[in-house]
């Protein structure tokens, strides 16, 4: 047994070991000596491997796989390792069955840690495990003087050029490649992150599954593109492009979209359909990336909410109103809260498009608006929440525990914050029995789930 302060491995050592676990970030874990963990990419539980120690920190290390001694039955032989090296598909080496199980187990492990007594159901599989994404945000960089599109190597900003993105709608991939070629033909300089120079930073393409319409957003460091009219003309002739927007982002930042944008061709929105309802989507608005599976997610949420005609529902973190509009016919009133003004503007139009007149819309932070409503004595029968990765704010949870809606449906894209919030809600008097993971992001390590809570 090694001394506690002693690091049991050295950099550049070649070792063999058996992988014990797979982390949330899809790294294999080997434990050396007294439990010192070494994280190794492309290594799966049960596999015996030879590896090189690349980093030996005080409490953990990193290694690089050199050779498989045995391989897991859950492994997909990955011909194109570019998907694993980049962040686009970090689970592409796992069979789809094993991915579903991995996601279920990730949630279970977090629940166990927080002593949450909910059963995690088997993950609801997506209809398609590849080519499902309706949106691409593709970085543009120069490599050896040539403008390239691709994806970043994991945990870096090193661009790996690629044209087949595996998980995106192939029509989006084709559009991105055509735009790359147009930008090359017009000699548009790619963005240089180090010097904050160059012009074109990202190409975003969103495609509406139902209508086929494609929106192209060119994110630029300059207000105008050189030869803008000609470039816009060329892009507008690509198949199904219904709108082109120039988004101005001069800042040194990892945030992709800037605040100012200018429609230069067609509509400033896309039109799509979910669960038979029509939706208009602006560039700045959130829209679920896997349309087919979104319908399944919403069906689960609606079923769990067990809606009644006399109920008042609050749909917090509502985006463009997709959930609210899908349920409005079944209840008395739906109240939407959302922070992005463009999304609320879309939501209002979407309600009209679907002849819904029992909804209202508030732009603001859910953690400010809900407490105000509760203070004023607003009655809430059902609360639906669908927060971003950071989960619910303490002020929001306090307001829920004051208002005590009899049903709460929590749609989560981050099991860690879900577990944290469920602990507080359950300690505050709510009851939950099951969580249903719904795979919105095959091949990626993101985990979506829906949980219903009721009052004791
Ligand atoms: N329910 C919608 C949107 C979910 S994504 C759908 O299914 O499409 C989460 C949404 O919450 C985004 O639209 C985001 O803009 C919004 N949001 C993020 N933080 C917020 C906050 N603190 N208060 C209100 N809305 C917020």
From TrEMBL:
CDD domains registered for this protein in UniProt: AdoMet_MTases
Top-level division of the source organism's lineage: Bacteria
EC numbers for this chain: 2.1.1.190
Matching InterPro entries: MeTrfase_TrmA_AS (IPR030390), MeTrfase_TrmA_CS (IPR030391), NA-bd_OB-fold (IPR012340), SAM-dependent_MTases_sf (IPR029063), TRAM_dom (IPR002792), U5_MeTrfase_fam (IPR010280)
Biological-process GO terms, alphabetical: methylation
Gene3D superfamilies named in the record: 2.40.50.1070, Nucleic acid-binding proteins (2.40.50.140), Vaccinia Virus protein VP39 (3.40.50.150)
The keyword Zinc-finger is annotated on this UniProt entry: no
EC supergroup of this enzyme: transferase
Active site, per annotation: 413
Occurrences of domain TRAM (ranges): 8-67
Binding residue positions for S-adenosyl-L-methionine: 288, 317, 338, 386
Molecular function terms from GO: methyltransferase activity
Pfam family name, one: tRNA_U5-meth_tr
Keywords: Methyltransferase, S-adenosyl-L-methionine, Transferase
UniProt record similarity statement: Belongs to the class I-like SAM-binding methyltransferase superfamily. RNA M5U methyltransferase family.
Official protein name in the record: 23S rRNA (Uracil(1939)-C(5))-methyltransferase RlmD
Organism, as annotated: Lapidilactobacillus mulanensis
Upper lineage: Bacteria, Bacillati, Bacillota, Bacilli, Lactobacillales
């Amino acid at each position: 047994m090694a001394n506690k302060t002693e690091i049991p491995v050295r950099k550049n050592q070649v070792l063999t070991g058996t992988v014990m676990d797979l982390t949330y970030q899809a790294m294999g874990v080997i434990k050396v000596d007294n439990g010192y963990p070494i994280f190794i990419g492309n290594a799966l539980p049960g596999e015996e491997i030879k590896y090189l120690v690349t980093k030996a920190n005080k409490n953990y290390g990193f290694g690089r796989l050199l050779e498989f001694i045995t391989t897991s039955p859950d492994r997909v032989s990955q011909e194109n390792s570019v998907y694993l090296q980049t962040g686009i598909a970090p689970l592409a080496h796992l069979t789809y069955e094993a991915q579903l199980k991995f996601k279920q187990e990730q949630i279970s492990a977090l629940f166990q840690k927080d002593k949450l007594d909910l059963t995690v159901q088997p993950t609801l599989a997506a209809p398609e495990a590849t080519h499902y994404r309706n949106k691409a945000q593709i970085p543009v960089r120069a490599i050896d003087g040539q403008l390239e599109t691709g994806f970043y190597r994991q945990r870096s900003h090193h661009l790996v050029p690629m044209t087949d993105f595996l998980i995106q709608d192939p029509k989006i991939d084709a559009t991105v490649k055509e735009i790359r070629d147009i930008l090359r033909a017009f000699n548009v300089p790619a963005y240089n992150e180090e010097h904050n120079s160059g012009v074109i930073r990202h190409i975003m393409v969103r495609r509406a599954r139902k209508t086929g319409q494609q929106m192209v957003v060119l994110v630029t460091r300059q207000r105008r593109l050189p030869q803008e009219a000609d470039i816009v003309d060329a892009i507008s002739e690509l198949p199904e492009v219904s709108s082109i927007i120039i988004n101005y982002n001069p800042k040194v930042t990892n945030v992709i979209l800037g605040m100012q944008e200018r429609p230069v061709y067609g509509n400033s929105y896309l039109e799509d359909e979910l669960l038979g309802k029509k939706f208009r989507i602006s560039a700045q608005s959130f829209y679920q990336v896997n349309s087919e599976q979104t319908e399944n997610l919403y069906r689960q949420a609606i079923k769990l909410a067990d809606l009644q005609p006399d109920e008042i529902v609050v749909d917090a973190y509502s985006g463009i109103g997709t959930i609210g509009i899908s349920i409005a016919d079944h209840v008395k009133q739906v109240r939407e809260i959302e922070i992005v003004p463009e999304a609320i503007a879309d939501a209002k139009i979407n309600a009209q498009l679907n002849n819904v007149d029992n909804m209202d819309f508030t732009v603001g932070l859910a953690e400010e608006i809900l407490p105000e409503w509760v203070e004023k004595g607003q009655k809430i029968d059902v609360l639906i929440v669908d927060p971003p990765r950071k989960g619910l704010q303490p002020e929001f949870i306090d307001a829920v525990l004051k208002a005590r809606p009899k049903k709460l449906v929590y749609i989560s894209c981050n099991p860690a914050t879900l577990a944290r919030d469920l602990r507080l809600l359950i300690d505050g008097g709510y009851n939950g029995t099951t969580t249903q993971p719904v795979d919105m992001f095959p091949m990626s390590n993101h985990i979506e789930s829906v949980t219903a809570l009721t009052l004791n």
